[in-house]
Write a structure and sequence with these properties.
The chain is mostly helical. It folds into two domains: 207 residues, no CATH class; 59 residues. The chain is 78% helix and 0% strand. The chain contains eleven helices and no strands. The chain is flat. 26% of the residues are buried.
């Protein structure tokens, strides 16, 4: 008979083993921060970071480097917000998102430079111990960490352009779409790439190996979603929003359709 307590613990461990959990305080901060919401965004992000760290201890697993960095950064931000005046608050309301993204770039690049890419701790949670020190396992985590570093750098550059050039921190493109899409791509890559390498390493049949097309098929629906968003908020001419929807749907259908056809032709289907 299955022990429900153990099952819940394993489920919690799998959840905590996802890098997006460690990144959630930063994601929450980017969603909440804005004019008049500096104290709230810092407090909610710090609270989320502390909860994640505590859940790791309660679950009997070691907190990851990123989770300690979460608490350190948002703890420091909360202190700064508490002891500084209006001028600093106003500056942080304008540039806080870019500072957070640059901090993430520094954290991720720092983890690579010290030869302990930040994804390593998450990957170890569901990988046999004998694989941890193999060159292939380490190489995958370096590559995934680089993808996240580039995503955060794009986020920072986009926010900086919106704030400093466009003078509009809420611009739908520089403040939301261009900042969100790299995170989606990095998250999907984090799932797809190790699965592909593992399938290749295990010598699985070609039909069972995750393909680049399958990876792209997880991204292309967002083109249509972006089109819908731009139409809803008036972030682009109507024809452009409609074109994004059509292109996204067409690409998603094309990428998925070929896979369905291959499966239909497979002798095992």
């Amino acid at each position: 008979m299955t022990d429900p307590t153990r099952s819940n613990s394993n489920l919690l461990g799998r959840i905590l083993g996802n890098p997006l959990v460690g990144l959630s305080p930063w994601i929450i901060f980017s969603l909440v921060e804005g004019k008049g919401r500096l104290e709230l965004s810092a407090a909610v992000s710090l609270g989320t970071a502390i909860v994640i760290l505590t859940l790791n201890w309660l679950n009997g697993s070691s907190p990851k480097m990123l989770e300690y960095a979460d608490v350190a950064y948002f703890g420091a931000l909360a202190v700064v917000v508490a002891v500084t005046g209006h001028d600093v608050h106003r500056w942080l309301e304008l540039w806080g998102g870019e500072v957070a993204n640059i901090a993430l770039v520094v954290i991720v690049l720092g983890s690579i430079l010290v030869r302990h890419p930040f994804t390593l701790a998450y990957a170890k949670s569901d990988t046999p111990k004998e694989i941890w020190n193999t060159p292939g396992f380490l190489k995958v985590n370096y590559q995934i960490s680089w993808v996240w570093a580039i995503a955060f750098l794009i986020e920072a550059a986009s926010g900086f352009y919106g704030d400093s050039v466009l003078k509009d921190s809420n611009n739908i493109w520089t403040g939301w779409i261009i900042q969100t899409l790299p995170l989606i791509i990095a998250a999907q890559f984090t799932i797809w790439y190790p699965n592909r390498l593992e399938a290749l390493r295990d010598g699985k049949a070609e039909a069972e190996v995750p393909t680049v097309k399958e990876f792209l098929a997880t991204i292309t629906p967002w083109i249509s979603i972006i089109g819908v968003i731009t139409l809803a908020v008036g972030g682009a001419p109507t024809w452009f929003g409609v074109a994004l929807i059509v292109v996204g749907l067409s690409l998603t259908r094309a990428l998925g359709g070929n896979d369905d056809k291959a499966k239909a032709q497979s002798p095992t289907s």
